[in-house]
């Protein structure tokens, strides 16, 4: 935790006035990054009755959070303003009562169109991928597949229009939403199928896919080859001369069991993977070498896809934190050292998705409900003290009642 | 709905370059100042500014280099938004230095931005530009491929992170570059005690493959903060590495050579360097402004051009402004580009002269960084902005006002002058000055720059002269209170003298052939001939005559047939016909004060009559010269003292090829102004002088066309500027200044300063040490006393009181050890509304501690009769970042909360009130308006609070929803607010108090987003010009001035919706029409972009763009409007004249 201690704020503010400090905002974010606690007084207007399988936050405003339930219901919350005490309203919802184009099965993937939140994409276990107009909450296009698809992703670069869909049978389907063509299929994972697909952060032509067979493949969609690199857990980056790291081969396997999570770090040169073998690995994207970082066992239970969230400070690459859903808890690791910083506990059911909001420096996690985590420990204490003040009690009875109805979770308690 | 316009362009130097840019023979210095760059020509005398070019972007990189197929240099510029361009300068018909864009393009990509500023190096031999903008990627631009207009770069991955410097090694077979990098970010070395480690490595570029190959030479360095690389030698692997206080030469397969010099102490911090010629000499400068010369002594091996450096020598040359850029020009000249003080041009002596190694030839004013400002508007007379500028020894207060400047040629120390006239005696130029005093007259002769008093026998020296002029046939007319004298023969011969038997002459006026004078209510009219002065007519008016004028309406004419008369008692202006003295027109002035002077003048063929009243205002009419009728009355208030109007032939010297003379009217008062006609509109421009008694134009042989101005301090002979502009005076303080307030009651400035021993300067005595009276501040608070006694400190913080007029330090109060003053205000409390107090908030500083745990105090002072008394102090448990007077109480922002303090007169004590408000992280800025408070939080952005007086509590009204890093904020009016953000954006908000939905009421709506490209530190209400005419379409009531780090001063003006619509349409049309340098889109330049959020710009008008409309040719102006009707999206429903009039009005507010 010492690493996340930062310079004196008064000096930084003074330096900023003279134009000598350019990374003030990042330093301020760092200060808060590793100090998350449950925001007890922030509620999301409840909607989902079943467990929530996936969430997505829009990139252009970091404001609208889409969440999809295992019954196919989709809902969008407005996550701003991030006040201490607030209830976030529902912006729209898609279910059988409100929309006839709703999904009927579990939602696998939700995607906001990058750089513009006027469009979003949903993928369900009903073998349908739907494209929606946000403003009218109206379906504008639909693709139906013959196979199950578990994951879809879009490149975050500008002018992106290609959705990659990972199919159960190992096919990687590319859908160009401009032309509507969905015929481009790459047969990459042959054995048991793909779980996951992710585009590279900075290149709209490269994508990574993780399979049930434990393989992680890098594919260049322009090339005729199925993939150009396959990650190998024995290809290790080390200074030790005696260990001869194995080169990547066609039969390389990243994890012994299926891949459950793929996440590129914001620095674009590293990839984190989590496998069903309860291990998390850090890879160098450029040469496919695995970095020797030990995160310890990560129990994935039977969640099919985990979404982990990475936060990395712009001014300092070494300050990178990953939030990993691990059973009912969210664990926070320092990415480059593997040190476990803290564990966030508050959920009653296994957590499937974590989303880090870079703009307001907070974390959203979901299991059967959605919780918000932020660096608000001191504020909450202040607030609680002020609520105990008898003069103020009357005006706050309503909020207090709401609070009392909620279960309170200690953040210090660890599992096992 | 705001109009944003530049008042002062950025002055801080952000990049420099030299090269043969304008032509193959002219050596140029190019200085970039944030959003614009200046091109100078270097001569042996110094440098000459020839062009100032604005860019739609903030210049991050500026490099001058030569393309292989050209005989002169081109300029490469990279902006903050990663737009790259290569510019060329050509001579064209319209412009001798036209800037052309050779190619341009966006070099932006999605990679992780680097915290280091972008670096760039150019290899002209291989035609390559190498850029490092984001981490892990270098960009290569192949200059050979630049056949199209598109600038393209190839990204190449590089493993090294945190690249600090990157340089090409010269003359290698393949392009080879060397990089300096660290494996950890810089902040690691500041915080912890880890040893600093830096690495060098070299790469070779495979030009064809567009790839790089790492070479064998690598070095590990343990310098203190290595920051610069200077490759030395040719076809060699060696480089000079400069660190904070270390200099080392690294060479492949050689031992490192490190300098050992007593000059490099632990505290030294070298921040910039430049190479002198091609030799082994370098100029270095450190953060205290010391200039060093570094010499590499070397042996040259003849055969293979390889050079061995045998020794490094470092000499101290002297002290300059703290600089970020130095560039060596030639002829021993060097340019110092400063970010904290004035930029300088210095000449370095080869031999030491008078104990110094260089002289400062010129310095260029720099206002940045502007930390705080105060606006002074004393009875709308002297609008002045005072800024806290600079840092450390280069800190200063800058006094900024707008007006017409006076360039003083000479001055005469004469007091109590009543009037002044110029005479041409035996010369075609003015060579004599007739100066009238009460009861006497003196005559001065001016030859070249010498002035002597003469006595020509025919002049009357015993009486006060009322009027004096050259008249027909080489004669002179002197009208004194006693008589009218017609003088000939070079002033020796009194030809005619006319006396009024009974009374003194009270007022008089004349032209070359006519003369009128008045004595009480009698009016006499004379005609002047050769050797005779004939009384033609006289009459009696009902009241005494206050003023007269018979200036010919056409300046080429010798006579006029109209006379303007101003009367006492029945305050009125009469027009009468000459020579009959028939009254043509009577115009009542509807004023209580008498007319002081009246003048007939023709502007652009339209005759006017201007009348000044004794209490300051000026009334003017259009004159029908045929019938002598006055119509279309307009009134303007200028000064508060009697105003005298004088016609001056104002010669335009700025345009030497066409010396054009134009007539202007000079209004002399305590608010001197020049009245002229510009685009069919009478313009009043204020003159940058305190008070002028009277004036006459003086067309001297030696000085050219000039003016003599009589002030209460003496006579100034000088020239005035053509247009009104900003004038900046500076008061060097010698120590950092952070906050300023002006106390109107006592006419003093109060500033907070900090002096650091580390940055001491030999040349300047800091202001706190200059004070007449020095006080040490004490404390009775035990905790603070204990803390401050424990530690010694190297900084001393003071409160200094400066006199408004003399600008001398009257009193300085030295705070305790380690006590830093953070905030300052002037307040009157409800219990004691007559006494203004000074409140200073301080913090006790510790090294690296937690911000929340600090101690601080509020100190209350009373200043009266040059005495400063500490009344009381109050301990607080955190740092008071902002304090303000609010509803007769003291509003203090402490940590994340806002508290109120009251002052008890009986106990002489500050008492904390129970009410407070708690924000989120830390309060950075507070602004108040009535009972509303604008609260800017470190991460929660803006919150509007209302103080409920009845219930004594703060209520949160609304808050903005987007988290952003606000730097400053201000109220525009009750419902709208503006704030600046740390990435150089402006955001305006409004609150929705009337909304029926609670959700909407509590949220601040974003009204506008705008990328300004400047980091604003402070907003202040005010405007540097007074609004003189009531007929204007814009109101200056809600003007806001803003001061930025770069020295930029801008103005925000609220526009009515209709005007906004019109100007927005014009902006869109202009943005399309005006070609920008580097072909950057106006919309992309102004689009809002901050970390994590981007949006198009709206709600703000770019005034700088709008005002370019005035410079367009008339035909184009018309074309833009008519074309707009053809298109179906934007329409301008106005005429060229109306639009020009509107924009002129807007352009006059800054």
UniProtKB/TrEMBL annotation, chain A:
<keyword id="KW-0677">Repeat</keyword>
<dbReference type="InterPro" id="IPR019775">
    <property type="entry name" value="WD40_repeat_CS"/>
</dbReference>
<dbReference type="Pfam" id="PF00400">
    <property type="entry name" value="WD40"/>
</dbReference>
<dbReference type="GO" id="GO:0000109">
    <property type="term" value="C:nucleotide-excision repair complex"/>
</dbReference>
<feature type="repeat" description="WD">
    <location>
        <begin position="100"/>
        <end position="142"/>
    </location>
</feature>
<feature type="repeat" description="WD">
    <location>
        <begin position="252"/>
        <end position="293"/>
    </location>
</feature>
<dbReference type="InterPro" id="IPR036322">
    <property type="entry name" value="WD40_repeat_dom_sf"/>
</dbReference>
<dbReference type="GO" id="GO:0043161">
    <property type="term" value="P:proteasome-mediated ubiquitin-dependent protein catabolic process"/>
</dbReference>
<keyword id="KW-0853">WD repeat</keyword>
<dbReference type="GO" id="GO:0000209">
    <property type="term" value="P:protein polyubiquitination"/>
</dbReference>
<dbReference type="InterPro" id="IPR001680">
    <property type="entry name" value="WD40_rpt"/>
</dbReference>
<dbReference type="InterPro" id="IPR015943">
    <property type="entry name" value="WD40/YVTN_repeat-like_dom_sf"/>
</dbReference>
<dbReference type="InterPro" id="IPR042238">
    <property type="entry name" value="Rad28/ERCC8/Ckn1/ATCSA-1"/>
</dbReference>
<dbReference type="GO" id="GO:0031464">
    <property type="term" value="C:Cul4A-RING E3 ubiquitin ligase complex"/>
</dbReference>
<protein>
    <recommendedName>
        <fullName>DNA excision repair protein ERCC-8</fullName>
    </recommendedName>
</protein>
<dbReference type="GO" id="GO:0006283">
    <property type="term" value="P:transcription-coupled nucleotide-excision repair"/>
</dbReference>
TrEMBL record, chain B:
<feature type="domain" description="RSE1/DDB1/CPSF1 C-terminal">
    <location>
        <begin position="798"/>
        <end position="1111"/>
    </location>
</feature>
<feature type="domain" description="RSE1/DDB1/CPSF1 second beta-propeller">
    <location>
        <begin position="406"/>
        <end position="718"/>
    </location>
</feature>
<keyword id="KW-0539">Nucleus</keyword>
<dbReference type="Pfam" id="PF10433">
    <property type="entry name" value="Beta-prop_RSE1_1st"/>
</dbReference>
<protein>
    <recommendedName>
        <fullName>DNA damage-binding protein 1</fullName>
    </recommendedName>
</protein>
<feature type="domain" description="RSE1/DDB1/CPSF1 first beta-propeller">
    <location>
        <begin position="13"/>
        <end position="363"/>
    </location>
</feature>
<dbReference type="InterPro" id="IPR004871">
    <property type="entry name" value="RSE1/DDB1/CPSF1_C"/>
</dbReference>
<dbReference type="InterPro" id="IPR018846">
    <property type="entry name" value="Beta-prop_RSE1/DDB1/CPSF1_1st"/>
</dbReference>
<dbReference type="GO" id="GO:0003676">
    <property type="term" value="F:nucleic acid binding"/>
</dbReference>
<dbReference type="Pfam" id="PF23726">
    <property type="entry name" value="Beta-prop_RSE1_2nd"/>
</dbReference>
<dbReference type="InterPro" id="IPR015943">
    <property type="entry name" value="WD40/YVTN_repeat-like_dom_sf"/>
</dbReference>
<dbReference type="GO" id="GO:0005634">
    <property type="term" value="C:nucleus"/>
</dbReference>
<dbReference type="Pfam" id="PF03178">
    <property type="entry name" value="CPSF_A"/>
</dbReference>
<dbReference type="InterPro" id="IPR050358">
    <property type="entry name" value="RSE1/DDB1/CFT1"/>
</dbReference>
<dbReference type="InterPro" id="IPR058543">
    <property type="entry name" value="Beta-prop_RSE1/DDB1/CPSF1_2nd"/>
</dbReference>
